[in-house]
Design brief:
343 residues; alpha/beta; D-Maltodextrin-Binding Protein, domain 2; 10 strands; globular
Length: 343
């Protein structure tokens, strides 16, 4: 019998394994239901096509931004997904590479285009900040559906309103919109602080940073109306709760879920491919099931889903951008003012 060279066989196995070792790409994104959908519905096709294993790193936008800053010398995350406010910080701090050119980006709506992020990130989902309300309670009381930001200041909602504080994007957007409709804006927030302090705060039961807690407050009948995100309303509606979402007539601040290739990562090519995949029409339609409006004009949604998310030219016309350069420069100052005068 011919003797087997065990050393040669072991070497061959090692070389073979090395040749087919699968790359691991780390993606930082939102936690909760979004993560589950991302891992089970979005990623499998990409992983198979690009022979890569994608590991999901869950966290809030601020938490994952802090991770990138802490790992700057040796980045472990390859692709990051943030709200547009933190994404502007990431771009400013040099944490994102330039996006590679791709035909898919030609179909991105202007509000989510890479040009808004100096070519270093692109929107992959749209969330509207508006007014959510308990339809059953409104019907019982004979109340008309809200149509304006000013409606949440109506005295009939005394201690029946909730929102994020200024530390949350929905709370910040509330302050900005009350400033705008009272003659100010990002460059002059005094009108907003005055309106929120005098007219909105008396109606607010709680300024909560927890969207899970806000949902629970609706379900336990502690509140009837809230400033919230379209994606959060969709998630609560899935449970059977009679929540409805309104785009206020003065405009609806857009939250743009944005992705970038992290600077200095070792899988730059596959990282670029992942973002292009996320921006594709078919994947955009899948994101809509989690309440994110498509950023790609070519994405097609079924009628029921299309009504629940920012979708189509009419709804996108209601979305208003935020001046994040000014906001990020002033936010610490506004936060101190909020703590002193609102809460």
């Amino acid at each position: 019998m011919k003797k087997i060279n065990t050393f040669a066989l072991a070497s061959a196995i090692t070389l073979s394994s090395g040749a087919y070792a699968q790359d691991t790409l780390y993606f930082a994104g939102y936690s909760g239901d979004f993560q589950k959908t991302f891992e089970t519905v979005i990623l499998p096709e990409f992983e198979a096509k690009h022979d890569v294993n994608v590991v999901y790193v869950p966290g809030s936008s601020s938490e994952n931004l802090a991770k990138l800053q802490a790992q700057r010398a040796s980045q472990q995350i390859n692709v990051a997904l943030f709200d547009d406010g933190p994404m502007h910080y990431a771009v400013q701090f040099g944490l994102c590479d330039n996006l590679a050119q791709s035909p898919v980006y030609q179909d991105i709506y202007d509000i989510a285009a890479a040009s808004n992020f100096k070519g270093k990130a692109v929107g992959i989902g749209l969330v509207a900040t508006g007014i959510a309300y308990n339809k059953a309670v409104f019907a019982k009381n004979g109340w008309a559906a809200p149509t304006s930001w000013s409606d949440i200041a109506d005295p009939k909602y005394a201690k029946r309103v909730a929102s994020n504080p200024i530390s949350g994007t929905f709370g910040l957007n509330t302050l900005i919109m009350f400033s705008r409709i009272n003659g100010g804006g990002e460059h002059d927030m005094d009108p907003g602080f005055k309106a929120v302090r005098e007219n909105v705060a008396p109606n607010v039961l709680a300024w909560t940073s927890s969207n899970a807690q806000l949902a629970q407050m609706f379900q336990s009948n502690d509140i009837d109306i809230a400033v919230w995100g379209s994606n959060r309303a969709v998630a609560l509606k899935k449970t059977g709760f009679p929540i409805e979402f309104v785009y206020p007539k003065e405009g609806t601040p857009a939250i743009i879920a944005s992705a970038c290739v992290v600077s200095g990562n070792k899988l730059a090519e596959k990282s670029q491919a992942l973002i292009q995949y996320l921006a594709s029409p078919s994947v955009q339609a899948k994101f809509a099931t989690e309440g994110f409006g498509p950023v790609n004009r070519q994405a097609k949604l079924e009628e029921g889903l299309a009504e629940e998310v920012p979708y189509g030219e009419e709804k996108l016309a209601q979305l208003v951008p935020i001046d994040w350069d000014t906001v990020n420069r002033k936010r610490a100052e506004w936060t101190k003012q909020w703590s002193r005068t609102v809460e």
